[in-house]
Records
---
Amino acid sequence: MAKRGRLYIDGKWVSSRKTFDVINPYDGSLVGTVPLATPEMVSKAIQAAYESRETMASLPLHERARILTETSRLIEAKKELFARTIALESGKAWKYAIGEVERAIQTFKFAAAEALTLHGETVPMSAAKGAETRVAFYERFPVGVIGAITPFNFPLNLVAHKVAPAIGAGNPVVLKPASATPFTSILLVETLLKAGLPPRAINLVAGSGSVVGDAIVTDERVAMITFTGSPTVGWAIKEKCGKKKVTLELGSNSGIVVEDDADLEFAIPRCIVGAFAYSGQVCISLQRIYVNEKIYDRFVKEFVKRTKKLKMGNPLDPDTDVNPMINEAEARRVEEWIKEAVAEGAKVLTGGKRKGNVLYPTVITNVTPDMKVCCLEAFAPIVVIDKYKTFEEGVEKLNDSIYGLQAGVFTKDVNKAMYAFRKLEVGGVMINDIPTFRVDQMPYGGVKNSGMGREGLKYAMEEMTEIRLVVFNV
């Protein structure tokens, strides 16, 4: 039965005359309808959050941690409900949906731990001549209202990565989830309130980026924007933010270098997961693979063989590996990219076909760096494989990108690993693993067109606080 969603504004669950449909990407069925927020509703949500700043800032650290810990516990108690909601509205395969819920449980636990240790430091004033009689220290204070704008691909855990640190740092939140996946956020807000979060400290509004998103981004009562999504939208948000703080996580066309000493029995299965989990709709999905020419043929043969064994089907089936893309328009876009690459000389070794919004896992070789399948973020189940002669050449090819989120390197040579770490222009280098690897307490973010700022609970809380210094003349 289709659901009827509600928005949460100023401590109340509300509806509106206009609604929008949320569609199951797998079978096109109606998941439910959600109210479309008006500009007036958004303004009311922001005002409620603005007026709750003192309430949130005055919450003791132990109370913030208690709310976050209880939220984690409540999510775990409803793990399958969260996973089913994610699978239905995002089309994510069950194994990855349940994995996302398990990560979100940890994310709130990590946030609780960081909330308990949020502190400042003393400053050695007597290190400066003339300041010998001064004693100083600083503390961290919440910045104010956080505008959180989140994507469809991780409708629980990427929301958690914005909401949890905001709460831990003592900030109220106005949350705008992706229109494709609002029901997971509705379920999360219900959970936060049950955990004891002050009612006006969380507000949930839904609608288009041009209306709802822009209203949040441009409102002077909002102190900071934290956004995950496309570079085009992200950099436009930064232009509109004015004096606000901003954290942007904008995706990538992540790649790896595979040296001839790599453990291929480990590397190839990991690369399969990195390239095709959630149909490649992951910011750090593996899109480019550069393999030492000595092992190139062996790698490609085994990679294609394993790719062909992936099972496509109903996301609710625990055995499903590859799910539909979020909508047919996105599948068509990537299908056109593949056709363009083939017309320019690329070879499709498997996949390349589309059925509705299902794009078959695709492996492409004989590519050039300027092909869209190489130089742009596909956000789809495709991967390109190329060869190199020297390790330095492989690193150079990996660096040849407008993005820089994460990269992977498979090698047993520590000197090569350190060379890659120092030379790769990315936010994180995974040695003997795929760039898709992430645990939720680590610093996470990119450079170049992949964004600015860092997520990860400790680092996000630092972004969401301001340092205030006091100096005593004694």
Note: The chain has a mean pLDDT of 97.
---
Amino acid sequence: MRAILSDPDSHNWCDIRGMTSVFSTSEPLVHTNYGLYIGGEWVQTARKDEVRLPYDGSVVGMVAHAEEPHIDAAVRAAQEGARAMAALANYERAELLLRIADQVRKDEPELAKLICSETGKPIKEARIEAGRSVNTLIAAAHEARQLHGEVVPMDFASGAKGRMAITVREPLGVIGAITPFNFPLNLTLHKLAPALAAGNAIVDKPAERTPLSALRLAELVTRAGAPKGAYNVVTGNGPAIAGLLLEDPRVAMITFTGSMQVGASLRAKAGLKRVTLELGNNSAVILEPDADLNTAVSRSVTGAFSNNGQSCISLQRVFVHESIANEYLDRLVAAVGNLKIGHPYEPTTDISSLIDETAAIRVESWIRQAVDSGARLPCGGKRTFATVEPAVLADAPAAARISCEEVFGPVVSVYKYRNLEDALAQANNTPYGLQAGIFTSDMKRAFQAARELQFAGVIINDVPTFRMDHMPYGGMKNSGLGREGPRYAIEEMTELKLICWQTE
């Protein structure tokens, strides 16, 4: 493992929008201290919160801390924004989303810097996230143009002769979005873009550790000409703000991405309020004897260690047929050894820090527990502050936390199996059901596995970490409720109305 520790004194440091950074830029950033964004205006608060670079704990920004009156103001602004969005024609919403996409595309370098600084993910991955965000907006714009209902054949039954009916989709109004730290821009847009496409407005509560890119996005949405109040951003204490949004009868829906425990709590408290939940996973992939090992190894490294393993669909368990297990493990360990650990600002860094040291300590403890229970650790697992070396485990017991819970860190476990039925049973032995995968050249067996795997998405000849932003994305079992992907999120964010009339 090549570990490279960056020395701040070796860089030409400069001030970027109130952030200390190794990035060089001649263009000043707009806000050194971000306020709340309510009704198209920046609102400052007496209390401020620091945002820190997880890699070394340095302060990279300051944001406002919202209190209850600010949440009330944001919801009131969103009501006005929702009325304005609902009044727009489908094509007008589509054109707005495309203008936002243009703003994001022009601002990609700055957005990538913010994502990197607040999450600690390597800059090359932050750039990928910024680019994907444009695709999310374009997909939502496409769906806005074709938002439609259907004709209901009323003469299906004798009692409705002479009647016709159609369905239409209408916006819900104000939607409360609670967004996560791991993809702070793109997962915000997976809530904002379909909400706007459907004619709603959003009150967004970004994760406390990663609010900067959402606040920057608010500037871009305004530049694109969105109605005031269409997008509001409130920062501060997550549970307190979530509680206020849940209790507010003016908020028609809560859309949440995060942990299973928090998601279950939100649903329990939501009452009749609509809720969509994108929760955790324990992603598995199966490698059959005829798997393409070159592709499987390469994609396993990407699937397990991109974003420092902090993705709901990060590859966590690999079930390998016993005939190829030793070769796969050897090649996987060799490939992981070529990953470069370093400062997230360095363009060659592959692995940087987790979101904070507490998360890293937890991952380290899970690895230790698996080893103490009999697992082997061919490589990785050492921790420095918030950084954990990418770890490969072998033969971890089924009862180990690393085997049955979501690790959300740079760890992958390899298990041997004798037949496909056994592998399917082991892969399904989890309370989660987001995505899984299988490598095989036998399409009959691939589709057999796809039907038997208890996951909402099955990826054939790739890892479960694969995702395109227009896909339906969501979970079975404890992995959540509802679907993301603009087309499918719009269905969650609209009300189906029937209009029926007498023709004779």
Note: Residues 123-145 form the longest helix (23 residues).
---
Amino acid sequence: MTHSPAITFRIRPFQADDAEAFAEAVRDSVHSLSEWLHWPHAHYAADDARAWFAACDQARQAGTADEYGIFEQGSGRLLGGAGIHAIDRQHRCAALAFWIRRTHQWRGIATQAAFQLSREAFSTHALRRLELVVGEHNIASRRVAEKLAARFEGMAANRLCIQGRQQAAAIYSLTPQESSFSP
């Protein structure tokens, strides 16, 4: 596999005018994403994206999630999404998730974005644990967890239901003390 030059990006909340770009990125990446995520489909439309953005806004206001778009610096092209979700303030933990559009996968974007969000989770949200729940055979996402120095805690049988199929998931945890990624 050849590596492309590093891409500079910024992470920000989705805005209404991102809907067309989001839908296009999902449709472009549906084959690589739908193997690991339940929501992508070939006819994903801007209305689907706007509904997702509205859900993101509600979750942010409720304090249960922070979801972001990953945008290429300069061009503004949508490269993917990442978020901290299932925020549990009592236990100070949450889940960390990400996806990268097909044309930009394997360039380190997911690792860098996940690291940035983990720093935010530990500082801004004062969380003490992040979990990454990754399909057993999702090598790319498992590699991101390993690069973040997340601790592999084991395999959970039937943990995910993707496209109607139950599958095992690798469970990783990340704490402020263990996080040591450096680009």
Note: Helices lie at 19-33, 46-62, 109-123, 139-147.
---
Amino acid sequence: MKNLSAFITLLTLILLSGCNFNRSVKYDFLSGITSSGKNIDCEDIFVTVNGTKKSGNTFIYGEILKIEFINVTGLKNIEGDVFPEMTMTVINTSSGDTVLKTDDLISKPEGYSLSPLTLYANLTVASPINSKKEYKAAVKISDKKGDGALVAEFPFKVVPNNKIIIEANDVTSDEIYLYSEESDKAITDNRISFDDNIHIIIEGLKGFKESDGMVFPGLSIMATDSKGNKIIENDDLFAKYAESGVESAALAKRVSAHFNIPETEFNNPLHCEMTVWDRNSGARLKITTDMILE
């Protein structure tokens, strides 16, 4: 016991001897956020999604993260105002490539007089960020009127929406997701609204047989309610391209179908199937998903 006490005391002395009291270093075990600051500090740093604090670091493609800095202190005060600057960089941790780099996220030249001061940065985990990959976001708060800085680094993983079932035959795709036109964002919980334009989107579709840079796809969509009533049915949205085809690059960039459900009595869930196929080969991709209308 004496040896353990001596070790703890020694460790404490080592830590204190190497500490600069103008600097701070913190690590959050639940989220993996690491922060280091010089002259600037904050009470807490965490990530929220839809207003809920997130404890892990795995996110669904299309989710919007908010990295929040609570009670930021140490910024130089000029006549009651402070002048922070905030930038963000996102790096693919496997390749080391920088996929996102922002200018100052704070467009408030007159400064802040709020106390306590909370700052936040939003990040949508969508293109140029991809699913099935790992990243690290670095958010830096600087002092426009001083030399202080606070940097928070946050490793995270992006996964596809597991409520979307994919059956692929001789084709590949980069991303498949649902999108709400009304809210202008991806739908990650499969809850949709009446009268909203809902898009089923495929990006990076490859594997169709080409002829002079053209491919010849078909696209069908069908949806039923829980009692089997047909709500949507179209055998081929690409029928008009059967002979002319579409450019291969256009197909690879994005394929989508969209629909809206008028507000009426409805038996949840909406079971939806969308299939894209190649008229000149056996290649096809089928998407199946259930959505809740509310």
Note: Residues 23 and 38 are 4 Å apart (CA to CA).
